[in-house]
Amino acid sequence: MFFSIDIDDGASIRGWLAPDNPSAVPKILVRRPGEDDIEISATVERPDVRDLGVHSTGLVGFIVNDAVVAGLEKIEDIELLEADSGILIYRRFQKGRHLERKFFFFDSSIRPIEKLTRRAKSLFTLTYPSTERYGFETMLVLINNGFNKSIFMSGRSSFPRYSHFLSNAGFKTAALLGDPFEELAQRLILLNLIQKSDASHMLPQLFTGLTTLTGFARDLPLDDQKGLLAKFRLLTEEEREALTSPMTKMFGCIPGETLNRGRVSAALENLSSMDLVGVRSRFSDFKALLAGLLGHDLTDDYEPVVHPSIGALADRLSRISLVTDLLEDDLALYSFAEESIGIALSHDADAVTRDTQTM
């Protein structure tokens, strides 16, 4: 999908949208709080877009004006979405409410911090959680959206794949890392639970990139140490690949690259280039530093709590050598990161103490 907003002069919003199907006439949803969505189709031919090769006819231009939405000029909170995918393409910037920031939060957890996402929705004009769901071309369009100056993105996307584009587009970046055994336990428990629920059909959307593990997780004996060991001994190559050090892949590899020992160093180097890196075991420190980076507290009163079932499974997994081997790179990465963050915070605290004593 490609799109661009050309102008919003209050009385009208004009732009174009080329859907994934290059011959389809795009449809746009106009959304306002408390009102039914309005669906419109492109009515303006754009030879310039056709000549770019992203649409076969160029019938991609649209106009939202008072004929579409009565009183458009006075409506502050209005959104435009691509009708088929539901991807947000435009929302009006509200001065005094929205931050003039572009921020990407790389969260290695399968379960995003919901409070952070909700808070981001109110503080940023455009928000894109779970970015791992989007294809490469769509991601580049979202990142390089020059019309909007307030954008929040988060997810398990590959940092090496997008770091250059994010830097060029003026994004601040932050990462939050979790204990590898706890992260794996959470993934297995959630995959196991959702397959037994009425939402099992949503698994590909909820757990992008992890559907390879559905068969493995479905009948996993979560409370049986010997049963767990037996299941891990029967892993297929595809399942093994999906389980092997996902955090190192996220920060050290472009999708499709082979994981090797050098990738831990690459991941650490990439993390060091980010504006902020934290670990869940020191979340209060990460929270304070993130608030300083953005000028606002995104996490509100959230504190990470490890559910007893996740903690118990993480402990069982940590005592299985096959699992330790699968997570070898992630365990090294997390250990290095946690130690480095601890040292950095300790030095900062010492510096504050020295400054105070000399006053």
Automatic annotation (TrEMBL):
Specify the superkingdom: Bacteria
Protein name in the entry? Uncharacterized protein
Task: Give the organism the record lists.
Answer: Methylocystis borbori
